């Protein structure tokens, strides 16, 4: 438990360094994982879905160390903005391809932009309650 507290304190102290890193990694993750198979009803392996959940859990842990619980909307808006930039990057990356017509439907894009920030914020709140419960 002391190691977790040390990591959270380090993230809080060096927030100006880690927040741009987290934003870049979130944008990169969104760019290459959109559309997620469990949102877009595609075929995906269990390992791929576990990898996605793992990446988002690590990102939520980093957010826990950098953003106070009083700014819960900051978490939601940070994730939504990073997701929007990542989706825009994916669109630019695949501009002119047929896959844009398949991947960038209204359902999958809005679902991703609303579901992922909501789930991330809920995981953030859950991690905060564990932090408070273990008195970290």
Please specify the SSE layout and strand pairing.
Layout: H1 2-13, H2 15-33, H3 37-40, H4 46-66, H5 72-93, H6 99-103, H7 106-133
Report what the structure shows.
The protein is an all-alpha fold. The protein has seven helices and no strands. It has helices at 2-13, 15-33, 37-40, 46-66, 72-93, 99-103, 106-133. Helix 1 (2-13) packs across helix 4 (46-66) and helix 2 (15-33) packs antiparallel against helix 4 (46-66). The longest helix is centred in the last third of the chain and has 28 residues, at 106-133. The N and C termini lie close together (7 Å). The mean pLDDT is 80.
Features:
elongated, mainly alpha, 0% strand, 82% helix, 136 residues
Task: Write a brief caption for the model.
With 136 residues, the chain is mainly alpha-helical.
* Main sheet makeup: none
> Can you write the helix and strand succession as a string?
HHHHHHH
Helix content: over 70%
Estimate the strand proportion.
under 5%
Helix/strand class? mainly alpha
How far apart, in Å, are the first and last alpha carbons? 7 Å
Uncertain regions spanning at least 5 consecutive residues: none
Gross morphology: elongated
- Quantity of strands, as a count: 0
Count of individual helical segments: 7
Report Rg. Answer: 16 Å
Overall pLDDT, averaged?
A: 80
